[in-house]
Amino acid sequence: MDGTPRGHDVERPAGRVQALPDERLLVLEGDVDLSAVETFDRSTSDDLAWVRSIDVSGVSFVDTQGLGLLLRVAAPRGRDAPTDRPALLGASPQVQQLLEMLGVDALFEMRAVPGDDGAAADELRPPA
């Protein structure tokens, strides 16, 4: 073996979920999986009603636990106040497609990350 990483040897970035209550923002980065969500859950209360935006621009992978976290933020608003959807910032086409396939994309308002050049905003905007 020459030490060159193979497809199965490449390490993916560890996931992280960070709460920024003063900014009413939840930041998800790397692989948002069971480990990342459990770590976050141990450090915060279950009530995420304060979250208004979720930055997913740094997400490389999301599993059902990560999706569950997104739904914990959005679902109550979807039932009680459909116009009060949390903003999903910087969602990749893959994340958007996953949400669409599951039929939960309408629970979120897709937005570009603030400071993007505008091209990303057009890419993230749902079709009219």
TrEMBL record:
Pfam families associated with the record: STAS_2 (PF13466)
Lineage: Bacteria, Bacillati, Actinomycetota, Actinomycetes, Kineosporiales
Name recorded for this polypeptide: STAS domain-containing protein
InterPro entries found in the cross-reference section: MlaB-like_STAS, STAS_dom, STAS_dom_sf
Occurrences of domain STAS (ranges): 13-104
Transmembrane segments: none
